[in-house]
């Protein structure tokens, strides 16, 4: 595999072969393997660095409903639209029902960040913005099959969420279960979403070329997630914060 594709030499002559390749991509490229996550979950970051992570990640979380609305717009099939629609509700919430974005703001507020500042996204890293917008553009411009396939990182999310909940609660005295509610809720939501997406691509990717496109879409998405952590590491671990970006208080 290359940085952009499965490369040559991988035979995708069945749905099962494609699924095996997808799971191999997750095992080797999912952002749970990134050094920043290991610092975060191992209690090696200070509060300002955790704030920077939560602030930047908000932009990704708050853009997911826009991405999913883009995916819905690609389908004339009513059943697919209905199935995908609940993802928007999961993040945006509904009248009287808290959604994932509100839960993420509970996290940033609990970490001591001003909600208006978080929602403005004025302090996020340029690489965060570029990566997230690239994801939206991918779902707009590539095939509907690839748009759905790009969501398959959710296959690997529950283990990461479990590690994050236990690690952060154990190591940080400024973290409590209430502000970690986003992740506990996703333990139920992510497997449902991933299950539908996996069955969809297995059913609709009927040629080796289409199966390759599915796998490459997942590689693209792992790159979207990985590069955001690269930027966080460069800015807040190595200390190269770009002008205008969030700067944690030193006291």
TrEMBL record:
Pathway listed: Cofactor biosynthesis; pyrroloquinoline quinone biosynthesis
Enzyme Commission code(s) on record: 1.3.3.11
Keyword RNA-binding: no
GO molecular function: pyrroloquinoline-quinone synthase activity
Annotated catalysed reactions: 6-(2-amino-2-carboxyethyl)-7,8-dioxo-1,2,3,4,7,8-hexahydroquinoline-2,4-dicarboxylate + 3 O2 = pyrroloquinoline quinone + 2 H2O2 + 2 H2O + H(+)
Example GO biological process: pyrroloquinoline quinone biosynthetic process
Keywords: Oxidoreductase, PQQ biosynthesis
Ranges in a coiled coil: none
Domain Thiaminase-2/PQQC stretches: 21-230
InterPro entries: Haem_Oase-like_multi-hlx, PqqC, PqqC-like, Thiaminase-2/PQQC
Entry keyword Oxidoreductase: yes
Origin: domain of life: Bacteria
Signal peptide from the UniProt entry: none
Family label: Belongs to the PqqC family.
Function: Ring cyclization and eight-electron oxidation of 3a-(2-amino-2-carboxyethyl)-4,5-dioxo-4,5,6,7,8,9-hexahydroquinoline-7,9-dicarboxylic-acid to PQQ.
Descriptive protein name: Pyrroloquinoline-quinone synthase
Lineage of producing organism: Bacteria, Pseudomonadati, Pseudomonadota, Alphaproteobacteria, Hyphomicrobiales
